[in-house]
Amino acid sequence: MTQVIRMRKPSPPSVDLSGDLTPQRETLRSFLENALKNLVDNGKNVSVSFSVGERTTIYNVSCTQEELGKIIGAKGKTINSLRVISLAMSSRLGFRSIIEIPYFPES
Predict the structure, then answer these.
(1) 90 with 97: CB under 8 angstroms?
(2) pLDDT of 8-40, one tens digit each?
(3) How far apart are CA 29 and CA 49, in angstroms?
(4) What is the DSSP letter of 9?
(5) Which are the contacts of 99, defined by CB distance < 8 A and separation ≥ 6?
(6) Are the C-beta atoms of 56 and 98 separated by less than 8 Å?
(7) Ramachandran sector of residue 49 (left: φ over 0; alpha: ψ -120 to 50; beta: rest)
(8) Does domain 22-100 have CATH number 3.30.300.20?
């Protein structure tokens, strides 16, 4: 007779949603700012700030128009990669993150 062994799925890591996540948000902001400064030629013109919603944190990138192309990358691959990384980091902590880049209209 064959025995069937049933295994339980591992439980996801517990996340305390009641606590203050400001240090984690600041760590992610710092990571994004350092990554973006290393991508561009003049890192002094790049900064990242964030605003907090109920469950979403919006990271606003400010840069000059000359650096925007290096931040976006070919076909948006660079900024999309940073968005995936930030979403993975923030979701483990229990909040959602969005990265917004500036829009410069054509003159």
Answers:
(1) yes
(2) 766 655 555 556 788 899 999 999 999 999 999
(3) 7
(4) P
(5) 32, 59, 61, 79, 82, 83, 86
(6) yes
(7) beta
(8) yes
| Alpha carbon separation from 106 to 65, 73, 103 (Å, rounded) | 10, 18, 9
DSSP 92: T
List, for residues 32-62, the tens digit of each pLDDT value: 999 999 999 988 999 999 999 888 999 999 9
pLDDT tens-digit readout, 71-80: 999 999 999 9
As a whole number of angstroms, the distance between CA 87 and CA 94 comes to 10
Q: For residue 14, give the amino acid letter.
A: S
**Residue type for position 47:** S
